[in-house]
Amino acid sequence: MRTATKDHYEEAIKSICNLHGNMAILSNLDALLKDESSDLADIEMLIQTDGSLAASILKMSNTAAFGFGSECESISQAMQTVGFGLALKLVSSALSKQLFMRDLNAYGISSNDYWQYSYFTATFMELQAKRIGLDHNEAYLLGLLHSIGRVVINELLRENKVEVYWDRFVSPSDWEIDTIGFSSERAGALLLRSWDFSEEFYSKVERQCEPIEEAEDLMLILLDYAKILSTHIEDPDTINELCSENSHFFRKKIEQANEDIVSDIEIAERYVDGIRETLKACQS
Fold first, then answer.
1. Which residue stretches of 100-171 are H helix?
2. What pTM was estimated for this model as a whole?
């Protein structure tokens, strides 16, 4: 395929925005959670701007993953039940049905595998952020959306009816640049900017493949570690090695017991399994 132009990417991003227009709710919700003057009523008003999303959230709030024994009959009740702490997870879980709806054919990745990879990365990062004093909501969102640029690349190739596939012998970024002249990290940053995420946030997505040993942003170092764990989550031997000290720059930089890493991996796996079952239940 010839090098993609700015117009090509703008069209691909526009197409995705049309398909997933309400994803901007995530950036607005994140801003509300950071605003000390906001309350649950503000979150309720934001959710109510999208009737379909509100219906999904209400249904999910009554499942085992988010419910607390009483059935919610309104968004107000649902927000009172889950509170600020779980609001971001509830909304992102409801949105995930559309965000991860398509296979990433150009990468040979099924929608289910893409969902699992992203959700594990997000959950593990959130757990670790709480341990080491980072913004856990930002960590969760970064883990969830860090590879969203692959959706842009996949959409661009699909719209132009170009059949090229990542062969896994080179890094995804090298393949993207060689094939279409643009990295998914850059594409993801542009998409997140169109969804009204802050420059501080989408710039992390764009910078995630910089040499990790030179990184000064601890959030990006954590992201790199979480991505590797998520990639190998089905390989117990590799996971055991990655849990050990000095296995990754993150482990060298942050002193932490191996048992804490193992615990967070197990918690993240259970959470991902629970959300998967919740989504299945809500679709039935």
1. 111-132, 136-145, 149-159
2. 0.88
